[in-house]
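User: Can you help me understand a structure? I only have the sequence.
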Amino acid sequence: MAKKLKELGIITVGTLMVAIGIYFFKFPNNFSTGGVSGISVILKALIPGISSGTFVLIINAALLVGGFLVFGKNFGLKTVYCSILMSLAVYGLEYLYPMSHPLTDQPFLELVFSVIFPAVGSAILFNAQASTGGTDIVAMIFRRFTNVDIGKALFCTDFLIATLSGVVFGITTGLYSLLGLLAKALVVDEVIENINLSKYFTIVTENSEEICEFIKSKLNRSATVLSGEGAFLHQNKRVILTVLNRPQAVKLRNYIKTVDEHAFVVISNTSQIIGKGFREMM
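Assistant: Let's start by predicting it. Here is the structure, written out as tokens:
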């Protein structure tokens, strides 16, 4: 139960970050970097009587219905929760904090925050195997019935939406939107990598028992021990393989210095660790 509540809290924070970035920075500046929020910005300009938040709510609701019709009970509960929460959060912010103009007179500064908030929020959601729905649902449906490369198809769609914003709002807004689209993809990938970042140790030592005991008892991790032989002097060595998070890595590195100052240690960054204690096999 505690694990489920923690996961719920994480995806809630991620979803609210997306909503904040969209409402406070994308909508007032008419930035359209694709997705449902981008479509909503353009539709609001074409149909002034309806707010962007209302369009987000309507489009996401329609996509959720489509998802249930196609996938039935197998449709992801996380996606449903995040999609509804994001739509209601944006819709509610319009009433709690109405905005008739951008927060600042610095469009580039606002573009940065319009990218960072949704990108970090989306990265948190992707890492928890969730999403805010929207065009992700379209991708799921396409994947179900076609062999189309979904990633390329969605990027082309987002690119078209960003380009269309230049037609509706002018070339400056269009260029900002295209820049934001490219930056969003880079930031999402970078944040996901850093969320999952671990340190992979390869330790060649003569004191393998002490180091393994420290890993097990002090760091609450495990390790794999291999037999090795030096190519130059042909001495028998032990090779310890282990993966730790960043704080644990610092402790192990400092400990190794105290028990074997001649140990050969290779520390690598990695974010794709699958197994017990890390990510489950998908």
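Now, to help you interpret it: The chain is about 65% helix and 10% strand. Strands lie at 198-205, 224-229, 236-244, 264-270. Let me know which part you'd like to focus on.
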